Amino acid sequence: xxxxxxxxxxxxxxxERRFQTHGELFRDMTQRVAYYTIQGNEVxxxxxxxxxxxxxxxxxxPAAAEAMAGDGVVRESVKVFVLDREFRTPLVVGGPSPHxxxxxx
Length: 105
Known about the structure:
Blueprint: E1 2-9, H1 15-19, H2 23-28, E2 31-39, E3 42-49, H3 52-59, H4 62-71, E4 79-82
Antiparallel strand pairs: 1-3, 1-4, 2-3
């Protein structure tokens, strides 16, 4: 499984309702889950996909272009990043986290 982050501008808040109607297209992209947020007319989506090649094939398809146009996505603003690095916070065994707030003495 790979994670992808997509940033885009949308024309209006109707984007969210329309975005959620494209289940078949997302299945074709091998998407399992999408986490997203909207701030004004900017959208960020983190997707988990099984097949990166298939994802980009569908993303470049006329069906995806049509879906984006219908959703009000500004196509030229779309930026796609494949996450290829990971950072894990080390666990502290046997004691409080060094990042936890300290209590005054």
